[in-house]
Write a structure and sequence with these properties.
Elements: E1 32-34, E2 38-46, E3 55-63, E4 66-72, E5 83-86, E6 90-94, E7 96-101, E8 104-106, E9 115-117, H1 122-128, E10 131-136, H2 142-153, E11 161-163, H3 190-198, E12 203-206, H4 212-224, E13 228-231, H5 238-244, E14 248-250, H6 270-279, H7 285-296, E15 300-303, H8 327-340, H9 344-363, E16 368-370, H10 384-395, H11 400-407, H12 409-414, E17 432-436, E18 449-454, E19 457-460, H13 461-467
The structure holds zinc ion (ZN).
Amino acid sequence: MYKLKFTFLLILLTNVSILLSQNFSDNVKPFIAIKETVFAITNVTVVDGTGGAPQNNMTVMVKNGKISYVGPSDKISIAKGTFTIDGAGQTLIPGFVMLHEHMFYTKPFEDEFNIVNMTNTFPRMYLAGGATSIRTGGSVSPFTDLNINKLIKEGKMIGPKMDVTGPFIERENNFSIPQLPILPAGQAPGPMVDYWANLGCTSFKAYMNLSREDLKETLEHAHARGMKVTGHLCSISYHEAAELGIDDLEHGFMVCSDFNKDRTEDHCDYRKAWSGLMALDKDAPAMDSLMKFLIKKDVAVTTTLPVFAPLKNYELIPGGGEQALHPDILEEVKKYSAGDAKSDSIDNIMFTKELYWIKKFFHLGGKLVVGTDPTGSGRTIAGYANIWTLETLIKSGFTTSEAVMLCSLKGAEYLRKQFDTGSIEKGKAADLILMDGNLTIDPGSIRHIRYVFKDGIGYDSKAIFDSVKGKVGLY
Ligand SMILES: [Zn+2]
């Protein structure tokens, strides 16, 4: 064993004035702040997404949309004239890869539940909030989501790279959500999986009122195409789903029906499932053994903290996005939240348990991934929730490096995109978040994003958030 000491010298011969060649439409261009083909971010604190220790005084170079160098600032000499961002006093982390996102939002009418696509605002808000890659966690309008993905790729819309799930796979239920796709009795889910996979969907989500037979067929059809299936389950227990080969379970441990003692097979009773979790000691051996079983079966768990955020001690809109909501919608959210306030002490207990369980699952070696889920009573909105999630994971006891890794590389690994994105490493896409402040000292620094880079294009986060002020709920 021997060590070699290198001094890295990077000599750039490229004409530094060349701009990236992708065409962007006129509605996208105003939000692009940096489009040089070659640039450097110097003297910056890097939390690289691999889980390794944060590093100060680093330089990251980007060339043609890819990261071309990561190393100490004093080990690189940058060619004269290279476009340089002085990152002193700032932190650079990988773009978020978040796995329970939606292009829709809850917009209740009187007492009727309603979900509506936020086609114009949410895609750009995800990007402004640092999410450079997302998986949608079930769709009510798959054509819209597929078209959004296409328009983003063509430079005609601002937004993240997308893994578009097919429509929710669900049976008859008593939820009264008019937009929710329902498979009629007698029709198997397989043809639906095939149909939407042929149209471009790349993963699927099983919902709350399926039989094990339904899930089995969904898995067979998706897996035959190398696609993954996640589930927000209720009628099927986590243990049963893991046994059948599901890839991922949504909402952490908050919707786990395994501890409902009166459970009827293939039947959803989410209130009893919730009571079972309430009654369960946080260190119950039964939960430990469930976690170990999920690990053995290689099942990921997606925690969706914002949608479960209690009111007490937390913002009405996690991440502070009240200004993004249309004033009428904000009033509605306030009204609904006032109703929720009655059960807030229970929400607090359950939220605390969820934080405890996801930490335990992670430390046991579980595949923990992260998402936001902009549904519930309308408090969770795209972008702001992504920001809040990182901040909250750090504040709840994950190290900064762990929290960043959960929000980036772990999601990329789940999507099998870890060789392309998810960490700040040479050769990967320049999917990056540059923020003011030192994230390792102040988790709130993530609220001060300057630029979000996607494939090396730097978008002005504040300008994007400013552009949606008062519009969420309408567009
Ligand atoms: Zn969801």
